[in-house]
């Protein structure tokens, strides 16, 4: 039929949401066979449209589609002034997190809200706890492991405005165009920048603005890395996670091996420069800057101590000290902060020069120390490797850092 139409009046192929060809190939393997269309109609033009397609993704599309020529026309304008971005420190424990989510929800008096979780189990847990508070008539749960019929019912209820809140994984969103979504809540930081841009863009499509909240905890980096490497929830069982598992994933970049760090450093440097120069006046950082004056602090002394502590820990590792076979972020922070916890005691961290240096001067807190460690890794003063330990019960993550 298509060949007949082409012979009579010509054809043009337009593929919208083109990034889905790569991102959702696990759901729709047939999408990766679009090269058949091109080979069947070699002279017919094809137009691929997407709002979130990095150059890396474009190159992957080129490999999948194998066109003779691919002209890329792109815009860097992804800023939407009607969206407010907020980062909230993530409370410990699911009950406290749910209470924090409820506080956000209750502050939004109209419109609908999507709550995104990284894993299916978290999506279900969040949904069930919200049902206890708001009732089942107000909450929908959506993820890829649901039966197709159940997903269709939930989606219809959402489109018909029968439910106000949706607890979902990133399986929810493609083709969803609801104008009155007032907020997007992420229970942890997204697995990739592409996903984040797609998901927050679902708020405020009626032009009346929207809030985007991320509950952030550095501990989630540990958990999400385990998910990626098949730890707490295997990649095979969690299809939403596996679709993000490639070198373009922001989380994968965070734990990239040393030989990729130079490329990563340049990318992050560009992002940092953009953040430092650009003022959107609509995120919590800009609002905070405008409300209070920035306090600049010289932390060179703290940084020097962290590097000295790492150096001493490495010497213990290389000497095959049975108490310390690898160095983790916890080891560095416990030593720096002067922790008296189980980890510090079992590894005799109090014998390290610099143990408790922060508690003596009350200079910085634990979260500040973690931030400085991240900065040192980014500056390649400390290198980082990921080491997944397998056991019958679970897999664990440890970091080996060195100068």
From TrEMBL:
Gene3D superfamilies the UniProt entry points to: P-loop containing nucleotide triphosphate hydrolases (3.40.50.300), Winged helix-like DNA-binding domain superfamily/Winged helix DNA-binding domain (1.10.10.10)
Cellular component annotations (GO), alphabetically ordered: chromosome; cytoplasm
GO MF term set: 3'-5' DNA helicase activity; DNA binding; four-way junction helicase activity
Domain Helicase C-terminal: 96-250
EC class name: isomerase
Record flagged with keyword Acetylation: no
Gene Ontology terms: biological process: double-strand break repair via homologous recombination
SMART domains hit by this protein: HELICc
Alphabetic keyword roster: DNA-binding, Isomerase
Similarity comment: Belongs to the helicase family. RecQ subfamily.
Protein name: DNA 3'-5' helicase
Organism in which the protein naturally occurs: Dentiscutata erythropus
Organism taxonomic ancestry: Eukaryota, Fungi, Fungi incertae sedis, Mucoromycota, Glomeromycotina
């Amino acid at each position: 039929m298509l060949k007949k139409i082409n012979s009579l009046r010509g054809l043009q192929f337009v593929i919208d949401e083109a990034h889905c060809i790569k991102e959702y190939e696990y759901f729709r393997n047939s999408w990766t066979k679009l090269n058949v269309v091109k080979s069947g109609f070699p002279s017919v033009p094809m137009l691929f449209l997407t709002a979130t397609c990095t150059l890396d993704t474009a190159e992957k599309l080129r490999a999948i589609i194998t066109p003779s020529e691919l002209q890329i026309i792109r815009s860097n304008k992804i800023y939407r002034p009607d969206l407010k971005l907020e980062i909230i420190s993530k409370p410990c424990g699911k009950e406290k997190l749910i209470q924090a989510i409820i506080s956000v929800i209750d502050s939004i008096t109209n419109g609908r809200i999507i709550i995104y979780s990284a894993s299916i189990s978290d999506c279900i847990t969040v949904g069930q706890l919200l049902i206890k508070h708001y009732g089942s008539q107000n909450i929908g749960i959506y993820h890829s492991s649901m039966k197709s019929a159940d997903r269709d019912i939930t989606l219809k209820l959402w489109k018909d405005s029968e439910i106000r809140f949706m607890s979902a994984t990133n399986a929810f969103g493609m083709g969803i165009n609801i104008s009155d979504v007032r907020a997007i809540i992420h229970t942890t930081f997204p697995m990739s920048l592409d996903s984040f841009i797609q998901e927050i863009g679902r708020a405020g499509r009626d032009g009346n603005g929207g809030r985007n909240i991320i509950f952030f905890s550095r501990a989630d980096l540990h958990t999400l890395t385990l998910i990626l490497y098949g730890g707490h929830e295997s990649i095979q069982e969690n299809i939403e996670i596996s679709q993000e598992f490639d070198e373009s994933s922001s989380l994968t970049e965070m734990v990239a091996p040393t030989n990729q760090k130079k490329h990563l450093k340049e990318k992050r440097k560009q992002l940092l420069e953009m953040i430092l120069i650009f003022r959107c006046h609509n995120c919590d950082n800009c609002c905070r800057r405008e409300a209070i004056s920035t306090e600049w602090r010289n932390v060179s002394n703290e940084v020097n101590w962290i590097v000295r502590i790492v150096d001493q820990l490495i010497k213990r590792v290389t000497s095959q000290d049975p108490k310390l076979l690898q160095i983790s972020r916890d080891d560095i922070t416990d030593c720096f902060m002067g922790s008296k916890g189980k980890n510090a005691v079992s590894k005799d961290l109090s014998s390290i020069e610099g143990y408790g240096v922060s508690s003596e001067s009350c200079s910085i807190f634990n979260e500040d120390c973690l931030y400085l460690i991240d900065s040192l890794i980014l500056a390649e003063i400390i290198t980082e490797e990921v080491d997944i330990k397998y056991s019958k019960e679970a897999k664990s993550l440890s970091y080996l850092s060195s100068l």
